[in-house]
Design goal:
Keywords: ATP-binding, Helicase, Hydrolase, Nucleotide-binding. Pfam families: AAA_11, AAA_12. One of its GO terms (molecular function) is hydrolase activity. The structure is a single chain. The chain starts with 5 loop residues before the first helix and ends in a 5-residue tail after the last helix. The strands form seven sheets. A seven-stranded parallel β-sheet has the order 7-8-6-9-10-5-11. A six-stranded parallel β-sheet has the order 18-17-19-20-14-21. The relative contact order is 0.07. It is globular and about 135 Å long. Helix 9 (about 205-220) runs parallel beside helix 10 (about 235-250), helix 12 (about 310-335) crosses helix 18 (about 470-490) and helix 16 (about 420-445) runs antiparallel to helix 18. It has five domains: about 5-155, no CATH class; about 185-310 and about 510-605, Rossmann fold (3-Layer(aba) Sandwich); about 320-365 and about 390-490; about 610-820, 3-Layer(aba) Sandwich (Rossmann fold), CATH 3.40.50.300; about 835-995, 2-Layer Sandwich (YaeB-like fold). It is α/β, with parallel strands linked by helices.
């Protein structure tokens, strides 16, 4: 394929091409594990990248009706004559962020439309852009092409690319790129560094990983690619930060990359924390560290501490310092040398200002006709006497002003200029700042007179007599400070730059550590840039191999350290075609598949051992040890009562079914209700105990994530001790919380699990919790077919960690809530049999009961209803709950029972009769959940149905059998003749027989 820009390829697609999901199917081939040449390697990614770009555009076009928009103010052919032939246009957008929250960014692919809302069919219309704007235009966002375009350009560099030396070494299985250098392997790392690492709190495997990486950085004989394998909780980020700190001290120019802004920010934060602990002189040395990227995407407003290393902030700071420092130093030198002429000039200036003020005032009075010259002159003399500033006041005020500005400027230089450019003068700068502080203190002390101070600041050593010792100290320190400042004025060798782009280049060219996403590193490639030596990639298993080519275009990179875990999620790929072609595979994963050794971090410090047990066995071949901290008793937190809520549980929800939303993502409303109830219980418990608890809810399906978020709402947002985060598995990679609740969603008869079977996704979900991991799912569905989930459920059963949700009263109520909300009637009937399977009374329900329960919107009220039903079915009776509602006639009214649920709702029930097997048995019948307003009509209707009862029927319903405080059902024998009569009359009991439970 000829080298053309990716954007040109995109613009060549017709609407039919965009909607054709098979446009590149026949051209995409599986990316091999080994390659015959660099050209073969690069070309293998071309069509998978095109297909992935096409999938992005296809999805955005299909959903264009929901795309964010922004108003266009101006469109015209480019003013640049060289660009007019290329169909390049100048477009001006409305500056304010639109109602949809969209503000166009560099690399956005947009659709220009004359309507704010666009459908796919509208895209078939053609129009012309005219010089004169005659109608409103809108930019409709489709997709951002920046990263894919950078990958494309890196691929098209061909064998000319700067990073090809390393690429040539990773093409085939015979590569020695991961092996130790024979010439360097006996090299002994400096004893200071080795001792420092040994005395740190790194464990043995972490220390070894850092030392081996440092040894690699010193090699000049070969290119290397080393793998550090960091399973969940093993201190991967800590290890990387320690490695980077060592490279920083070695002045080894290193680019630190990650696939996402979040990952870049995390590792930068960890290094910055370590640097602040180790740096002894304020923030000097931070100038060697640069965080490069997009402020908004990195969410830097949430991380104030990163402002010290973020490039855009640094450019602003240095822009002021570069242009101001020398003027401030010279101003202080002049003041310390001889402030008297400046003081005299100040007095003259103040006098002139007062004269001008008096002249202006006199003119105003003349215009008003009330001038009194004599009185005015007297007032002027008084003002001169009262307001004239003393020499001591002038010097103190002027000194403080210059000193404060100089301190800010010197601090900005020390903190932001790379140490190689300022190291020789840092000590003098710190001395000067200390002396300036001391001089200021003495200036504000007990100075006797202006005469004494004049002697101190006399330009020659003629004191004219003795003075206070403190003034002698002042003179000495003033002289020392003056000497240092004069030296600094000539010794500080930094550029006088006032152009932000030049300052950016200066910072990047001289930094030791540069943090950036792999994609954004494309903007670091500068002319005459000092070569980089190392590329350190965090979360390397999530970075597409072809995306790694972007930073490899930078000059000088000799070694790559890849840190990641190929047992966790790979890069996200939208196209199924590209996914099947292994387009999302990382270099880390490919090298592992070729047998390259990966250095394992072998001790986890995150999970309670009950949580780590299964993933360690399933994914890591039992190679991971539990750290001492997680084995301590204090690490076992009991956050809810009951065996169900131990460190590790599978909570079986055998009811409800999955359903697809309009975006074809699965959700399960019964699990939504159960998860929400568990979160609510945790919150209530945290209020009682006062413990700080963080909860994460994970689901593999976005539909379920949105449903749970909607159910929970923001009810916990204002709590300081309780936090809830609901995200997809992808959104939780790298995260951790005290408690993790997993909603598996799938609930069907054939055991279909979809992409739930992907082991990497499962591994991420199972390894996010510190103290408690509770997995909510349908055990029958998950064990129907052989999968990792069958292994998990069976493991939970074998360990005694398998629990049925319906055996917990609060979760049982939540299940019914979910069934009612999703109108899953069949499961409601099945749920009834479970609720009352151990009850002393048989239970039946009126036809309107569950519809009336659904009308109860309060979750607390619903839970109270379920609790009442279970207690009543076990013989509990509470006269205090019973309400005396005189709404029915004498006789039948005595059958109806009214139990108060809350101030608004009432449970209506009776003792009824069930005739079967020649027996007449008392049963409970629950008619409805009613309100006071509905009660008269309901009672009237029930009273009408009671009229058919015989006196014997009524008496039998009223009989009570007491056993202590419990009321138990009674039973009577009936004759065969009575039974036949009952059957022939198609009585009520025949209908009830089909409804009874137990």
């Amino acid at each position: 394929m000829a080298h053309s820009a990716l954007v040109d390829m995109v613009f060549s697609w017709s609407l039919e091409d965009m909607l054709n999901q098979n446009l590149y199917r026949k051209k995409v081939e599986k990316i091999p594990e080994t390659f015959s040449s660099v050209s073969h390697y690069l070309n293998s990614f071309t069509y998978p990248l095109l297909e992935e770009t096409h999938a992005d555009v296809h999805a955005s076009v299909k959903n264009v009706a929901h795309a964010p928009t922004c108003k266009v103010l101006y469109v015209a052919e480019s003013a640049d004559k060289n660009l007019r032939r290329s169909n390049i246009y100048d477009v001006q957008f409305e500056q304010e962020i639109s109602q949809t929250g969209y503000k166009p960014q560099m690399g956005d692919l947009i659709l220009l439309s004359d309507a704010r809302s666009v459908r796919v069919g509208d895209m078939k219309r053609s129009t012309y852009i005219t010089q004169q704007k005659r109608y409103d235009l809108y930019a409709v966002y489709l997709v951002n092409l920046t990263t894919n375009n950078r990958i494309w350009e890196a691929l098209k560099q061909g064998t000319e690319g700067k990073g090809m030396n390393i690429i040539r070494n990773v093409l085939d299985a015979g590569s020695t790129v991961g092996e130790e250098c024979n010439l360097c392997s006996s090299h002994v790392i400096g004893s200071d560094l080795h001792g420092e690492l040994q005395s740190s709190d790194l464990n043995a495997s972490q220390t070894d990983a850092v030392l081996r990486s440092i040894l690699t950085s010193k090699c000049i004989h070969k290119n290397s690619v080393k793998l550090i394998w960091g399973p969940p909780g093993t201190g991967k980020t800590k290890t990387v930060a320690s490695l980077l700190w060592a490279l920083l001290n070695m002045k080894c120019r290193t680019l630190v990359c990650a696939p996402t802004n979040i990952a870049v920010v995390e590792i930068a934060m960890r290094l910055l924390k370590l640097a602040r602990e180790e740096i002894k002189s304020d923030c000097y040395g931070l100038g060697d560290i640069v965080l490069f990227g997009n402020e908004v995407r990195m969410r830097l407003k949430e991380y104030d501490e990163l402002s010290d290393i973020f490039l855009d902030y640094r450019v602003t700071t240095l822009g002021n310092c570069f242009t101001e420092w020398k003027g401030l130093v010279n101003s202080m030198i002049r003041l310390l040398k001889d402030p008297i002429p400046q003081y005299i000039a100040c007095l003259e200036n103040m006098k002139k200002m007062k004269e001008d003020e008096r002249d202006n005032a006199r003119k105003d009075k003349q215009m008003k006709g009330d001038l009194d010259d004599d009185n005015d002159d007297d007032n002027d003399d008084d003002d001169d006497e009262e307001e004239e500033i003393t020499f001591q006041e002038y010097v103190s005020k002027k000194f403080k002003q210059i000193k404060n500005n100089l301190s800010i400027c010197f601090g900005g230089l020390c903190n932001n200029v790379p140490s190689t450019c300022i190291s020789e003068v840092v000590e003098d700068i710190n001395k000067a700042l200390a002396l300036l502080e001391s001089v200021e203190t003495l200036l504000n002390g007990d100075i006797v007179s202006d005469d004494e101070l004049t002697k101190i600041f006399a330009p020659h050593e003629n004191t004219g007599g003795e003075y206070l010792p403190s003034l002698g100290i002042l003179r000495t320190q003033r002289n020392e400070c003056l000497k240092i400042l004069i030296a600094l004025a000539s010794k500080i060798s930094i550029p006088n730059l006032d152009d932000n782009n030049l300052i950016r280049e200066y910072c990047l060219k001289n930094a030791t550590l540069i943090f950036s996403t792999a994609s954004s590193s494309a903007n670091i490639n500068l002319a005459d840039m000092k070569p980089l030596k190392m590329l350190v990639v965090d979360e390397a298993a999530q970075l597409k191999e072809c995306e790694l080519l972007i930073p490899l275009q930078l000059p000088g990179i000799q070694h790559i350290i890849l840190i990641g875990d190929d047992c966790q999620l790979p890069a996200t790929i939208k196209s199924t075609i590209s996914q099947e072609a292994d387009f999302g595979r990382s270099l880390f994963e490919r090298m592992v598949s070729l047998g390259q050794r990966k250095h394992l971090l072998n001790t986890q410090y995150r999970m309670n051992p009950s949580i780590s047990l299964f993933p360690n066995k399933q994914f890591y071949n039992n190679q991971i040890l539990d750290g001492a901290n997680v084995r301590e008793k204090a690490y076992k937190r009991i956050l809810l009562k009951g065996d169900t809520y131990g460190p590790y549980s599978f909570i079986n929800v055998a009811y409800g079914s999955e359903a697809s939303n309009n975006k074809h993502s699965q959700k399960n409303m019964v699990e939504v209700a159960v998860v929400s109830k568990i979160v609510s219980n945790l919150y209530e418990a945290s209020i009682v105990t006062g413990e700080r608890v963080s909860v994460g809810v994970i689901s593999p399906y976005n539909g379920q994530v949105f449903a749970i978020q909607e159910k929970i709402g923001d009810k916990y947002g204002k709590s300081t001790n309780f936090s809830v985060s609901v995200r997809s598995v992808d959104g939780f990679q790298g995260g951790e919380e005290d408690v993790i609740i997993i909603s598996t969603v799938r609930s069907n008869e054939d055991g279909s699990l979809g992409f739930l079977t992907k082991s990497q996704r499962t591994n991420v979900a199972l390894t996010r919790a510190r103290y408690c991991l509770w997995i909510v799912g349908n055990g029958r569905t998950l064990t129907h077919n052989d999968s990792i989930w069958k292994e998990l459920v069976n493991d939970a059963e074998n360990r005694g960690c398998y629990f049925n949700a319906d055996e917990d009263s609060s979760l049982a109520a939540a299940i019914i809530d979910g069934l009612l909300d999703s109108e899953q009637i069949e499961d409601i009937n099945r749920m009834k049999s479970i609720l009352f399977r151990h009850a002393k009374w048989k239970v039946i329900f009126g036809e309107a009961f569950f519809s009336s329960l659904k009308d109860v919107r309060s979750a607390e009220a619903r839970e109270e209803v379920i609790s009442m039903l279970k207690k009543l079915s076990n013989g509990w009776r509470d006269p205090e709950k019973e309400r005396d509602l005189k709404v029915t006639e004498i006789g039948t009214s005595q059958l109806l029972k009214f139990y108060e649920v809350d101030k608004e709702h009432i449970l209506v029930w009776t003792v009824d009769l069930l005739k079967e097997n020649l027996q007449c048995i008392q049963v409970l019948k629950f008619w409805a959940i009613s309100t006071c307003y509905e009660m008269p009509d309901l009672a009237k209707s029930l009273n009408h149905s009671f009229r058919k009862y015989t006196t014997e029927d009524i008496d039998r319903r009223k009989f009570k059998c007491l056993e202590g405080d419990l009321e138990l059902p009674m039973c009577w024998e009936i004759t065969p003749e009575e039974d036949r009569e009952e059957s022939n009359s198609n009585s009520l009991s025949a209908r009830l027989a089909s409804l009874y439970l137990k």
